[in-house]
Amino acid sequence: MADMLEPPDEHLVSLSKDGNLAAFNSLVDRYQSIVFSLCYRLIGERTAAEDAAQETFLSAFRALHQFSGGSFRGWLLRIATNCARDELRRRMRRIPARSLAAETDDDLAIDPPAPGADPALALDDRTLGPALEAALRSLPPDQREVVLLADVHGLQYEEIVAITGVTMGTVKSRLFRARERLRRALQRRPELFTRSGRLHDRGEQ
């Protein structure tokens, strides 16, 4: 019921374009946790994610006149993704090469997954906690990006294409590989799925 009383994004954007800072601050309040979550999972470091989230809203405010309609949330996540990429590139220039070597297929060389270990569903299961976060961090950045946009933030393929700047086929390929890597990584902890009921219930279809 409370959501019905809140002004839609379109109204707040219109007011913001007219210089209403309170309206833009309402948009910040509405999306700051989502933006920070995306930045944090893409970057993996809280302070850097906070910087990227702040830059996201500053960039959005400066570019607000360029927003011509559609999903404001999708537009904002596109900016957040770019800011996180920039911050990640800055970090990678300062981090030893061993950090890149940690993300190898050898780390995930385990038995094929059971049908019930569904990473797309698991991403919404908070009971998986640290195991899921570790699995996400094991993904290469381009795969982590698409799986977060698709399975955490629920964006459509077309929106992800616009955000990432790659083709539809590349988005689907990266998403498939990301889900498979997550599935295989999470199979190391089958008790998590058993506790949530997914591995047992879905695996016996």
From TrEMBL:
SUPFAM superfamilies: Sigma2 domain of RNA polymerase sigma factors, Sigma3 and sigma4 domains of RNA polymerase sigma factors
InterPro entries: RNA_pol_sigma-70-like, RNA_pol_sigma-70_dom, RNA_pol_sigma70_r2, RNA_pol_sigma70_r4_t2, RNA_pol_sigma_r2, RNA_pol_sigma_r3/r4-like, WH-like_DNA-bd_sf
Keyword Transcription: yes
MF GO annotations: DNA binding; sigma factor activity
Domain RNA polymerase sigma factor 70 region 4 type as annotated: residue spans: 131-182
RNA polymerase sigma-70 region domain sequence ranges: 27-93
GO biological process, one term: DNA-templated transcription initiation
Pfam family, one: Sigma70_r2
UniProt keyword terms in alphabetical order: DNA-binding, Sigma factor, Transcription, Transcription regulation
Superkingdom classification of source: Bacteria
Family per record: Belongs to the sigma-70 factor family. ECF subfamily.
Protein's name according to its UniProt entry: RNA polymerase RpoE-like sigma-24 subunit
Protein's organism: Tepidiforma thermophila (strain KCTC 52669 / CGMCC 1.13589 / G233)
